[in-house]
Design goal:
By secondary structure, the protein is an alpha/beta fold. 43% of the residues lie in helices and 18% in strands. A six-stranded mixed beta sheet has the order 5-6-7-3-8-9, with helices on both faces.
Length: 679
């Protein structure tokens, strides 16, 4: 029997009431949220179906993170509800979280499989109940069989027998080295601990993944790995991200929150932008027509208000005016939000010169022999894996940490520095206005309200406590502080984290127009494109200069995309020194020069490769045996055997096949790594 026919036969046991392709996992019904009597969104409704890949978009403060918290059960709405089956599992990654530091990386990650113990306990209880029952034709007995099949399928789908290989694959994909696995989590900085939490969530394989800015703490290589995972292995996904390429590669549906309403498009982000543009144009036409109708009606009322012969018509027009529901245009007026850096005071021809600069933490060399100079007016990018030294070099430039070599700051250079954690450094207990008032000087103090209004903090928004601002609003507020002083060297370390798409575009335009020198540390591919004219690549303890933009850099490395921007190092690389901070983490030492292998060493390598090839052959044989066993049970089911014992055999055989496939994948990966070293 074909596998499709078998799936149809087993479907009542797996999903008793619905078809696989039409399962609704979560239903959001007439949801409304208000903050201080101000509606965030009102009466929104939509569903999340099995295998949906949804991008949740909207300007900063529209309510994206709030909606994720409500679906995750972390926050209650003002009205409406979220309904889902009690069996639906959710994995939620917030923008910020408090993480425990009481064990090692591998043991903390292993907690992802704790739910399997609970499933096994429930299955054991159901098996005992079935064994005690004799009413085989009753509805209660049938329900127990359904429950048994459901739990068995859950355990098979969340198989823990292969968890070591899955943990290794996930942690390495997210940028950890195998040598990190037994390190205490307390040694990792906040960004890397967020990766640990993301790894745990992915390994739990929940029915729905709710991810709030998951790429903020990932480098380009890890983003590409996560893209592939979400596109191929995850179930339903609802995510918030300001990375266009990430959204296009992962999602197939886009839900926008705008003006307290939602708009649901069955397309990925780029087509959504065009459809949204058409929608806004239509709204604008309708808005203009309505405004003309309102103006004409008011004019009629004013002209004939005091003429007795027109009293009936006037009253009719007044009632007509009262019934008009104002049309809202979703387009945000970005003309008010124009980032403009003050004119840059003239600096020397070379604002920054490095000669043989290096930085090490103990025995761990982050980078060494860095030599380059940046000319006045150049806009350059620092790219590379997290921990390779990008932010560390920035801290050297700022004089925050010691280093070796010579680093010269040019004549009359005034530096404006935006750190990764700049938004978190804001005082949450004071208002937006007070935040700027405390740093403003001179004539600027008389224009604070105007400045805040230009950055969309006008009116009541300027009196908000900083603690209630969204991540993007905090970043925008931190950017205002940077704009208050004229500088000629801007150093921006991940400035786009938490910024919405439109604000990112506006910031990009402002940097383009800035007449000073700019260094941008970023993993945002779209943001760097067309912005920088030189790329400094950090990796393997070195800093390499590449002329041209980001895609010129990729072409010079014969890459079609940023997927392979930074190749993963081997399992034997030195562990990262993450205890100081994420930016200062060291992940490798400068590579030892390649030397020719001796005859004995070559023979030993050949033997190792042969053993790896043999493991692949053994794994393939086990896969064949597992497939044969599964096929035999499928034939039994096709012949009419549908008792609980046969279904249990089927579950075990299916699980065994998946295990054998995983062992084969690991063996193949080991073989590929060994043979790659020979090339």
């Amino acid at each position: 029997m074909a596998r499709l026919e078998l799936a149809n036969l087993l479907m009542p046991y797996l999903y008793p009431s619905e078809s696989l392709n039409t399962i609704t996992l979560v239903s959001i019904n007439n949801l409304s949220v208000e903050f201080s009597a101000r509606p965030l969104f009102k009466d929104i409704s939509f569903v999340i179906n099995k295998n949906d890949r949804i991008a949740l978009v909207g300007k900063n403060g529209a309510g994206k993170s709030t909606l994720l918290k409500i679906i995750a059960g972390m926050q209650s709405p003002t009205s409406g509800n979220v309904s889902m089956n009690s069996e639906v599992t959710i994995g939620y990654l917030p923008q910020q979280m408090q993480l425990a530091d009481e064990t090692t990386l591998i043991n903390e990650t292993r907690k992802a499989f704790s739910h399997i113990d609970e499933l096994n306990r429930q299955l054991e209880e159901v098996n005992i109940l079935i064994a005690e029952r004799t009413d085989y034709d009753s509805e209660g007995y049938a329900s127990l069989l359904d429950r048994q099949a459901f739990l068995s399928e859950r355990i098979a789908m969340s198989d823990s027998s292969n968890m070591e290989a899955e943990m290794e694959r996930t942690l390495v994909g997210l940028g950890f080295n195998r040598s990190d696995f037994n390190r205490p989590t307390s040694e990792f900085s906040g960004g890397w601990r967020m990766r640990i939490e993301l790894a745990k969530i992915l390994l739990k394989n929940p029915d729905i993944l709710l991810l709030d800015e998951p790429t903020n703490h990932l480098d380009i290589e890890s983003i590409q790995w996560l893209e592939n995972f979400l596109a191929t292995k995850s179930k339903a996904v609802l995510l918030v991200s300001h990375d266009r390429a990430f959204l296009d590669n992962v999602t197939k549906r886009t839900i926008e929150i705008s003006c307290g309403k939602i708009y649901d498009y069955k397309v990925s982000y780029t087509p959504f932008v065009e459809l949204r543009k058409e929608r806004v144009e239509q709204q604008m036409k309708a808005y203009e027509n309505q405004q003309k109708l309102i103006a004409d009606t008011k004019d009629f009322i004013e002209r004939f208000r005091y003429k007795p012969t027109k009293a009936v018509q006037v009253q009719s027009r007044i009632k007509q005016l009262e019934k008009i529901v104002p049309i809202e245009v979703d387009e945000v007026d970005n003309s008010r939000l124009r980032l403009k850096f003050p004119p840059a005071p003239r600096s020397g021809d070379f604002p920054l010169i490095l000669e043989n600069v290096g930085k090490a933490y103990g025995d761990h060399q982050v980078f060494d022999h860095a030599e380059f100079m940046i000319r006045r007016g150049e806009k350059v990018a620092f790219v590379g894996k997290n921990g390779e030294g990008k932010s560390t070099l920035v801290k050297c430039i700022m004089g925050q940490i010691p280093f070796t070599g010579t680093l010269k700051i040019g004549h009359n250079v005034k530096i404006g520095y935006f750190a990764q954690n700049q938004a978190q450094l804001l005082d949450g207990d004071i208002t937006v206005f007070d935040t700027i008032d405390r740093v403003a000087t001179g004539d600027i103090r008389t224009k604070i309200r105007d400045i805040l209004g230009a950055f969309m903090f006008g009116g009541e928004a300027s009196d908000k406590k900083v603690s209630v601002l969204s991540g993007g609003e905090k970043t925008r507020l931190a950017m205002i502080k940077l704009l208050l002083e004229p500088v000629n060297l801007l150093i921006l370390d991940e400035p786009t984290n938490h910024l919405d798409m439109r604000t990112k575009d506006i910031l990009k335009d402002a940097i383009k127009d800035f007449d000073g020198t700019v260094i941008v540390v970023s993993h945002d591919r779209e943001f760097l494109d067309g912005l920088v004219e030189k790329v400094y690549e950090f990796g393997q303890g070195k800093v390499k200069e590449n002329l041209g933009g980001i895609y010129d850099f990729l072409r010079s490395k014969n890459l079609d995309s940023l997927k392979d921007l930074e190749l993963s190092r081997s399992a034997e690389t030195t562990p990262k020194n993450s205890g100081v901070s994420e930016a200062e983490k060291t992940v490798s030492v400068a590579p030892v020069e390649e030397r020719k292998l001796s005859y004995a060493e070559q023979k030993e390598r050949d033997r190792t490769i042969r053993r790896a090839a043999k493991k692949i052959e053994e794994a393939e044989n086990k896969v064949s045996e597992a497939e044969s066993t599964l096929a035999a049970i499928e034939e039994k089911i096709a012949a009419g055997a549908s008792d609980s014992e046969t279904l249990k055999e089927y579950d075990e055989a299916k699980k065994n096949l998946e295990n054998m496939m995983s062992l084969w994948e690991v063996a193949q990966q080991d073989y590929d790594e060994l043979t790659a070293k020979q090339l």
